[in-house]
Design goal:
This protein has about 210 residues and is an alpha+beta fold. It has helices at about 10-25, 55-65, 65-85, 100-110, 115-125, 135-145, 150-155, 160-175, 195-210, and strands at about 1-5, 35-40, 55, 95, 180-185, 190.
Length: about 210
């Protein structure tokens, strides 16, 4: 069985949803027969590459929220993350995620996508690291199992750009307008950071469909 997941690096709901899905998968009797593939989805593809601001500043600016309201919105998802045992820093930065998605696609090609995503989540959400900076991306990718030279080559060129755009085109064709989105054998969809029990049920239903 295969589970395809669309997500973005800066999406806190993707962070929580990933943890809940993985908890469900860890208790799934056929977990060793489940392939999980992450796909690119940029929440803000037009975000300037050279702009650096915090998530709270971005929320206030983008949605016209007063600072206190932005803090309250972030605190709600922070509480959900911490309930899953996840670190969460409200001072995390925001940036354009296109290059990160290209490196994530590289990691998929090299068989270490899960390791890289877990490391990126830890660095970004728990440690508020500037994962949009080249040196930081490279350091995290190398620690996750990628070669420094190949990461540098990807960042210096446009490798995997087409794959990222194809992921996003497929999302549009499937009617995916928000993330996270989980597709079980491309037959059963689950949208959002649903409770672990919902993912358990989806895994069971998708497996039963296989006959």
């Amino acid at each position: 069985m295969r589970v395809d997941i669309w997500s973005d690096v800066v999406c806190p709901w993707c962070y929580v949803g990933k943890a809940r899905f993985e908890k469900a998968l860890s208790g799934f009797p056929h977990r060793d027969e489940v392939e999980v593939v992450y796909h690119s989805f940029e929440l803000d593809p037009g975000y300037p590459k050279d702009l650096r601001e915090t998530a709270l500043t971005m929320l206030s600016r983008k949605y016209g929220m007063p600072e206190q309201q932005a803090q309250a919105a972030d605190a709600r998802v922070a509480g959900l993350a911490r309930a899953e045992g996840l670190g969460f820093d409200s001072n995390r930065p925001v940036g354009n995620t296109f290059d990160l998605h290209r490196v994530i696609r590289l990691a998929h090609a090299k068989g270490v996508q899960q390791e890289l995503l877990t490391a990126l989540n830890q660095a970004y959400f728990a440690q508020a690291r500037q994962v949009f900076d080249r040196d930081v991306i490279t350091e995290i990718a190398v620690a996750a199992g990628l070669g420094k030279d190949v990461v540098t080559e990807v960042l210096d060129g446009d490798a995997y750009a087409d794959e990222v755009r194809q992921d996003e085109q497929q999302a549009r064709e499937l009617g995916i307008s928000g993330v996270p989105f989980f597709a079980f054998d491309m037959a059963l969809g689950v949208s959002g950071a649903q409770p672990t029990e919902t993912f358990t049920s989806a895994l069971d239903q998708a497996w039963a469909r296989r006959g």
